[in-house]
Amino acid sequence: MTDNDTRGSPYAPHTEAETATMLDAVGVDSEEALFDIPEAVRFTDELGIEPESERAVRRDIERTLSRNDDLTELLGRGHYDHYVPSLVDHLADRSEFLTSYTQYQPEVAQGFLQALFEYQSMLVEFTGLDVANCSMYDAATALGEAATLAQRVRSVSGDRVLVPAHLAAGRRAVLENYADGAGVTVEAYPMDDGAVDTDALEGSMGEDVAMVYAETPTVRGVIEESLSAVGDLAAAQDALFCLGSDPVALALLEEPASVGADVVIGDASTLGLGRSYGMGLGMFATHEDYLRQVPGRLVGAGEDESGRRAYTLTLQTREQHIRKERATSNICTNQAWVALRTAIHAAWLGPDGLVELAEDCVRYPQDLAARLDEIEGVQAPVHDRHHFREFLARTDQPATAVAADLRDRGYAVHDVGEHLLQVCVTERTTAAVDGLVDAVAEVAP
Amino acid sequence: MTDNDTRGSPYAPHTEAETATMLDAVGVDSEEALFDIPEAVRFTDELGIEPESERAVRRDIERTLSRNDDLTELLGRGHYDHYVPSLVDHLADRSEFLTSYTQYQPEVAQGFLQALFEYQSMLVEFTGLDVANCSMYDAATALGEAATLAQRVRSVSGDRVLVPAHLAAGRRAVLENYADGAGVTVEAYPMDDGAVDTDALEGSMGEDVAMVYAETPTVRGVIEESLSAVGDLAAAQDALFCLGSDPVALALLEEPASVGADVVIGDASTLGLGRSYGMGLGMFATHEDYLRQVPGRLVGAGEDESGRRAYTLTLQTREQHIRKERATSNICTNQAWVALRTAIHAAWLGPDGLVELAEDCVRYPQDLAARLDEIEGVQAPVHDRHHFREFLARTDQPATAVAADLRDRGYAVHDVGEHLLQVCVTERTTAAVDGLVDAVAEVAP
Amino acid sequence: RYEPLLSEKDTTEVAVGGDDSPLPDDLTRDSLELPALSEPELARHYTRLSQMNYGVESGPFPLGSCTMKYNPKFTEDVAALPDGAVHPDRPDDSVQGTLAVMAGLQDYLGRIGGMDAVTLQPPAGAAGEYAGILIAKAYHEANGEERTEVVVPDSAHGTNFASAALAGYDVVELPSAEDGRVDLDALEAAVGEDTAALMLTNPNTLGLFERDIEEIAEVVHDAGGLLYYDGANLNALLGRARPGDMGFDIMHYNVHKTFATPHGGGGPGAGPVGVKSDLAPYLPSPHVRERAGGSGYERYEPEHSVGKVHGFEGNWLVLIKAYAYIARLGDPGLADASAKAVLNANYLATQVDYEVPFGPFHHEFVASAGEQDAADVAKRMLDYGVHPPTTKWPEIVGEALMTEPTEVESKRTLDQLAAAFDAVAGEDDATLDAAPHETSARRIDQVAAARNPRLSWQALDDGS
Amino acid sequence: RYEPLLSEKDTTEVAVGGDDSPLPDDLTRDSLELPALSEPELARHYTRLSQMNYGVESGPFPLGSCTMKYNPKFTEDVAALPDGAVHPDRPDDSVQGTLAVMAGLQDYLGRIGGMDAVTLQPPAGAAGEYAGILIAKAYHEANGEERTEVVVPDSAHGTNFASAALAGYDVVELPSAEDGRVDLDALEAAVGEDTAALMLTNPNTLGLFERDIEEIAEVVHDAGGLLYYDGANLNALLGRARPGDMGFDIMHYNVHKTFATPHGGGGPGAGPVGVKSDLAPYLPSPHVRERAGGSGYERYEPEHSVGKVHGFEGNWLVLIKAYAYIARLGDPGLADASAKAVLNANYLATQVDYEVPFGPFHHEFVASAGEQDAADVAKRMLDYGVHPPTTKWPEIVGEALMTEPTEVESKRTLDQLAAAFDAVAGEDDATLDAAPHETSARRIDQVAAARNPRLSWQALDDGS
């Protein structure tokens, strides 16, 4: 092949002679003769896409992407930037993993199945729940699936799902769609200084509540302190308690099972993926009771004919390719490869590394908030709570203007209200914190 | 492991308990007790190297390297920048290749051996010679090895090696060292308008000449037109004719065997490596007659016990680990992995792609020289010859000043004489040529 | 060689909380118990696991309907470019590069599908179906219509049924005609005022082009329904026919099928959705467009947006690979990809000893294992070093072997595949039943595994 | 499964020259005949070849004297940084980043070896030896001395002999003492006014520290010779002893051994050379130093430079990996690497059934296969899924099994290795002779291959 050869597909290996032989065998004169398309719907125009060499495509995309500003991002709100060790890329990119298909032939897919089994096992440890599936698309769709699960498993029907008033707009919007199809409405319960207002939540409860959702940390980075109370309120009405979190937070925070969580969802790609414009990995774990109502794929241990342990996709009768419209979900292609990355990253950190990373996620925002709070025109954190990775800061100046000024100085923060900024700091950005503090000191007063 | 753990080696897996068990088994109390080093030569100070996390090392090196200016390089003179397809990195980086050792246990190294055998075969096709080794360090050391080969194989001893007056200084300097150890002196023969002055060369010949070296293209990019004459002159004195070239050039130019070359050396990493601060791959091919005098490793085809074809390092009695001071060379570790990359790149291009690339290497400099020649204060090419990749341009202004002005405008060219620039253009830089021409038009008059 | 679980190599329980903790103990867990292994041990573990896995670079992967193409390496490098690693909540001005790529891909996909507007948000094909059905639903509701049914042919992908159900629709299953295509009479009977949409794959899962597509569109549109195109088989049509020209109103693209992004052992994929102009106001939010005046790109909320089907904006790392692939191939490459995919399917169909009903085929064919069990045939093919086709589906062919070689296989590889098919065709049931032998695991008892689900190392009987 | 040669898959001969050629036909070849294969075919070819190859991530690789460590993945990413991909002929001002890394590595290596100046130019260990000997030669010549001999112990690496010979020296082989170390009497007899240098490895190839190193240095220095340190075994001493403190004047470092750069199936390596200050003026050109006033770095030609041993400045892509490795480990990591390497060797030595003479060991030990053939033992160990040790060398131990696990092996892996050793120790000659069985090729007849050398596909009898 020549890289400049753009006459056909560079990935089709046919020589002219082979093509001729094959056409002969089929008994037609040309490739065109194989297309059984009525004249009326034939497309005879040009698509108008110019082919380019591999070299040119790489160069062009590199140039295009370089139009993204070079900013230090202190952004979070559901998409986080932890350092992904080099090992993850190198192992997950092995073509046997990356280019394989769903494990419908487990005898030649033991490697990926075992890796997913190990991923599921890690989530079981993180959540304290019995089972975890091997991925949903992201936290938002996992939350949506939790709502449909709640509908299916609840003994009495309920058509309300309660969610915190502080919830990422994207997560809520996705949930609304899933809930709508399931005939459920979504209602927000109020927050008290950034955390669940348990009294207000209690007032909202009723037997028509199918699910109560809470998050720790919240979208504002607040670590919830009343999760057991939320669990109790949900249990009292036979509602499912769905908790949103992520593996880094769960390495440190209360085990979800211990606070009564029935389902844990969240973005597991906080390990393994890094910044990727919001791409994620939906975590989904629940009780064994709900096993047959779980959405998505499950990997189980079994035995092969020689009696050796072997892994396989299991309980597939829940899934769309068998159960069709009565499946537990429509999901087919999932985020398996991201789960592989997450598992490698978690294994690389090990329990010590995970706890240390999580503790840093408490210390960094605490320290930064304290430093910002000393700056004239800034009060931080807004909520008098423990924080994880991020926190709100109040600015005397309009937040939009402060955020724009910070951008001019090379820093991106969230502008979340008239006088509210949100700042996220991880081990990837902690070195930039001095610069940020200086910049805020310049622009905030 | 935690990435911040810098208390010991992150790549030593020992837990404290395992270390203790192992020390017990050995019968000592501590690791220190294992070091049988006399007190007087013990080092008890600090080396003074601070450990850092993987993340920090990556960040620091990235920052350090970013101090390199962002220049468009139009540089050659022995180190070239061809586009390396993505496939090369992805396949050569597979750990089974990258982290393997020399193939002393061929039964578990068939993959690398076969790849090297294929590489050798490609060089046989490029050169028309019978055998090629599976790598030397670079073109310069390959040239040095050719000189010692000439000493060994020549029937009568000769102590002169003739090289072109236009020869990269680094290549000549390395040759001088190898020649010196072999008791040979290196002499330059003159050039005529950038190419071998065959009359002058004839005058320099004598029976004390062990080897004549010529290059095509030369260090100035000139395609030699008198190679057969050089071969004849060498043959007449029973001197070896060593030709320097590279696989891209040899895809197009006269086959070395057809002009009487006895040895072909050069930088084979013009395929497969790209810019790497001068790192290369020494090509070395010669006649079957000299097989047992070849330096470096050779892969041969053989059979395994089941009668199937298998590959193995062969004729190892030439090598230092067996023949010691009587070995054909001191080389042990070579550039095998680069040879793998070169082979993948060559295979990716295929014969069509190689010829096309080589033809472009004639067209690009021709076109660029013509455009530069139209600029006031510039005459190009200096030599009225065919060129490959690069050429000399004469400037009315001092070349050093012109080169510096071009650098200020983002272009790096060679400054090779008081009023001489050298410019190299490949498919990687052809898109930058308009900008270069504009810049030259600004600074040259 | 058995590779132990990570947990069989090590588990270490570390205490959490205590004096050095930045949190009070009542907010922390007590301990965390996970494997603690070094990087060299992990490198060997996952390297070994990879060696027990078959990918596209291991050999042919002729899974019908799954379109397992070779994934060009350079697209991985493009996805890894650091400038693309940005947070989605940045203001538009600061991510013009990312938005330009997205707008570029929207444009490419629109051209390829004959659609007027394309969203990249759905993170997989099924999510695309779901988004598409949400769009249809919103459209009908905006028109004051309460349509409750989605019609799906019996030969359709399971996701079609499930996606319609997820959106709250009743699913009406449409029986296929004897020739394996849509039965027009059955369609007329099924479609009516309750019909929100008909979901259709074309060519269908038998590899057959729905020749009556214009009539089908007319029936659906006359009833006020919308026509939805399942893009799973789009690889058969590139540059030769476009869903938008056939009367489809909505479609999704499976970028890992048609545009060669790797399937990653299950995902991630991406399922962009294209619509005709009258449906564009219903696309998910945000959508990317060129700014008025051409000064770059912006994200905006379409007027009647259905909201969101992903928390952010989809699977960026997949989308950029698809963009690079399309840019590399362009018109001639895409057309050639389809030509060779169809040639390969037809050629292979002539080379296998199994009966191949129906035809003529586009990108895939469905052979019948006849008296043999198709699943057993698949297991036995593994012993011949190739990946088997999709089996036992679609059900319209008994003991189906649904085979799609794609354009990336050479004649030599197709001949090897045919030889594997034919070798197995000549073997007896006992041989098939005992297969596979040459794989890292022998035949796995999936029924037993499902009867006694053990889904984590914590659940293993031996406690390991 | 046999993987055909590329040439067995395809060869295509294309005509070169003709009307469209930019060169006249008399300057071009007539044709070029090579395989013409597509990217998917190549991806599978090389993937398959890789699967027939054993690397450090496949399992333990205890090759004595070769120090096959795990190669940290992040060092690959550092080497791939685009800012490092520059041409060596750029002016110093425009490559300050590259020069800073080089200066940094020179500094690290100087500290680690106890040397005053370090060149990074030699592209491998043997090239480092050669450069070091050239330095010694230039030094003596500058002092008006014509020394003609280099003394090398019989247990030394073959490269020591060959490198000295390449520089034009006569090699004097020094017999080892009964305890496997340098025989001081023999040394005194061998060293004299013709001695340019003694080349020594410490610990030596038996893993033994040369306890008399101070006396050795005195003998050599008193005779006016220089002491050269072969860095192959430096991994045993990191942070605990430095060649420069033991009296060595010149040394080379094997970065793929000591600093974990990958060996790449044979190379590339890098063989930096460190010298004491009085030898610094003889280092190869160019050398990197900080500019006066600290305003960055510059390259210069040392006053009495030996010239060059590489056309440019060595193997950059290897050097930067070594730099990253050292920066990651720092003092505690380097010291721990040595500690664990020595612990591993000593532990494994206690676990194998074969006789292990000599000791105490540092980084490696040499067991004896006794009545068994060491080469056969190695072949048989392959069947147990591990890589065997170096065999039949050094010759001071009969049927030597020269074993160096390095620090990266866990106790579990060492126990597996010991089990493999011990299983083979209990087997009979016939079993060993027939091994290996479990490898991609069975025992290869190397004698026959050498007798009838076929070194290219063109040379194969079948013409394939």
From TrEMBL, chains A, B:
Record-annotated Glycine cleavage system P-protein N-terminal domain positions: 11-431
SUPFAM superfamilies: PLP-dependent transferases (SSF53383)
One Pfam family matching this protein: GDC-P
UniProt GO BP: nucleoside metabolic process
Bilayer-crossing regions: none
Entry annotated with the keyword Oxidoreductase: yes
Record keywords, A-Z: Oxidoreductase
GO molecular function: glycine dehydrogenase (decarboxylating) activity
PANTHER family, per the entry: GLYCINE CLEAVAGE SYSTEM P-PROTEIN (PTHR42806), GLYCINE DEHYDROGENASE (DECARBOXYLATING) (PTHR42806:SF1)
The protein's name: Glycine dehydrogenase (Decarboxylating) alpha subunit
